[in-house]
Write a structure and sequence with these properties.
The protein is of the alpha+beta class and about 280 residues long. Helices cover about 60% and strands about 5% of the residues. The longest helix has 17 residues.
Length: about 280
């Protein structure tokens, strides 16, 4: 399967407008934001495709039993439907595919990264009325059901397997080398989920220099979120220079230098040096 390529500039501008608007709404919709990310990645995903993905999430929610019980019963119902009947799960090979970070592709292929599979679990469960939320464990996203004192964790990447406390400890230890902290089990904010998805896209593109176009749109969408790391502006500037857009890249570097000089003059001087070097490439 060919890797997806971004849409036309006109389509991209409209998608970004909608993405920024949704991200700044009172209650950002996770599935909408994820599908707008997917449309920025895949120029073949049109409005009909966006609607079809939402309809599929609705359809899956309609297959769940009506209010099966407490948190553990909800987790079991989602595992039985999505993991067993529908076959949603992940494999190591999914980390090598951009499609694994695109919600419409994950719905079609029933494969994806842990965080995108978790988005499917979250959106299907939410539509059915489950007490569900994302849990951003270090290195491995899962879903949680119920309140703190009765929290049940499930791993969509493993077909929705319900995790014991020891399982969660092992996941965290494998990623950090240390124990689990209660703060890691708190519900993840939808915008933090979207930023983490975009971080995954940037990581995919970083390993493939020929896809700097993907890295650029992922950074630019991240910058549209209300809260994002300031260093993303520096990353965008570097990408512009790498892509031969020396003047725009130099201007971005100079703007970033102005931001950081108040806290680190030496770093600002280095960035200004990079801007000078970028402008020199125009000669």
């Amino acid at each position: 399967m060919r890797p997806p390529f971004p849409p036309s500039p006109e389509r991209s501008a409209e998608l970004r407008r909608r993405f920024a608007e949704e991200a700044r709404s009172e209650r950002p919709d996770l599935s909408t934001l994820c599908l707008l990310v997917a449309a920025e990645a895949d120029g073949e995903l049109d409005e009909t495709g966006l609607d079809a993905a939402q309809v599929e999430l609705d359809r899956l929610a309609g297959l769940l039993p009506y209010r099966p019980g407490g948190p553990r019963a909800w987790a079991a119902a989602l595992r039985e439907l999505l993991g067993e009947r529908m076959g949603f799960h992940g494999t190591p090979a999914d980390y090598q595919r951009l499609e694994s970070s695109l919600l419409h592709e994950v719905l079609a292929r029933r494969r994806g990264l842990p965080i995108l599979l978790s988005v499917v679990w979250l959106e299907v469960a939410r539509r059915a009325g489950a007490p569900v939320y994302g849990v951003a464990l270090p290195g491995h996203f899962v879903v949680g059901f119920g309140p703190d004192e009765g929290q049940v964790l499930a791993d969509p990447f493993d077909g929705g397997r319900v995790l014991t406390g020891a399982d969660a400890e092992l996941l965290v230890a494998g990623a950090t080398g240390s124990g689990i902290d209660p703060s890691m089990l708190r519900p993840a904010d939808p915008l933090d989920v979207v930023l983490r998805i975009l971080n995954n896209v940037r990581a995919w593109a970083a390993a493939r220099p020929e896809r700097s176009d993907v890295a650029l749109w992922a950074v630019e969408l991240s910058l549209l979120l209300p809260s994002h790391p300031a260093r993303l502006r520096y990353e965008r500037a570097q990408l512009l220079v790498r892509r031969g857009e020396f003047l725009d890249g130099a201007s971005e570097l100079e703007a970033y230098a102005e931001v950081v000089k108040a806290v680190d003059e030496a770093a600002a001087a280095r960035v200004r040096g990079e801007a000078f070097a970028a402008r020199a490439m125009l000669n």
